[in-house]
Specification:
The chain is α+β, with helices and mostly antiparallel strands and 169 residues long. The chain is 18% helix and 34% strand. It is built from 3 helices and 7 strands, in the order E-E-E-E-E-E-E-H-H-H. It is rod-shaped, with a radius of gyration of 27 Å. The structure holds zinc ion (2 copies). The site of one zinc ion has 6 residues, from loops.
Length: 169
């Protein structure tokens, strides 16, 4: 929802609150669409003696998977932002300055980047997740496969095959 900033100009101290749920289900990040849960934003846009600022928070559940064992994970994620809004086209976007492209602002445009900054490249289901066996794909947290024991030097694999076929007859 866009907030019409012209409404803020009617008095020196005006504020417009916002509180809404936004849909980021199509938002792509690291090759996935991790925002499958509702995203809640709330806060206020205010004008204090001509300085327009937006202060608010954003929260959601980030759907991803363990980087080692691929177990689905639901990570609670939240961020806060307190930014001045500038309509000066010469102004440079900074950490605490958001440059407006019109005389309205969509709080999501300010808050979603703050949320994405909180996202880590990878998550683990637990610090010491043992991951999947690269050979048989077994979840090593659940079961011990014996692939490690079976690993033999490829140079001996041919010999091993020979011995095995010998045994077989
Ligand atoms: Zn894991
Ligand atoms: Zn294995």
């Amino acid at each position: 929802m866009k907030i019409d900033l012209k409404k803020l100009n009617t008095s020196a101290h005006a504020s417009i609150p916002f509180d809404e749920t936004i849909d980021l289900t199509d938002e792509k990040l690291y090759g996935a669409k991790p925002f499958q849960s509702p995203v809640h934003i709330k806060g206020v846009v205010s004008n204090e003696s001509g300085v327009v600022r937006l202060a608010g928070s954003i929260e959601t559940i980030y759907s991803t998977e363990c980087a080692r064992c691929l177990k689905p994970l639901e990570i609670p994620l939240s961020a806060e932002a307190d930014m001045m809004l500038s309509d000066d086209p010469e102004a440079e976007e900074e950490d605490d300055l958001f440059v407006l492209t019109s005389d309205s602002v969509d709080p999501a445009d300010v808050l979603v980047p703050a949320l994405i900054l909180q996202v880590q490249m990878t998550y683990l289901c637990k610090e010491d997740c043992k991951g999947l066996c690269p050979h048989c794909g077994a979840d090593r947290n659940v079961t011990d496969c014996d692939c490690d024991k079976k690993q033999i030097d490829p140079r001996f694999a041919a010999l091993r095959a020979l011995l095995d076929s010998d045994k077989g007859e």
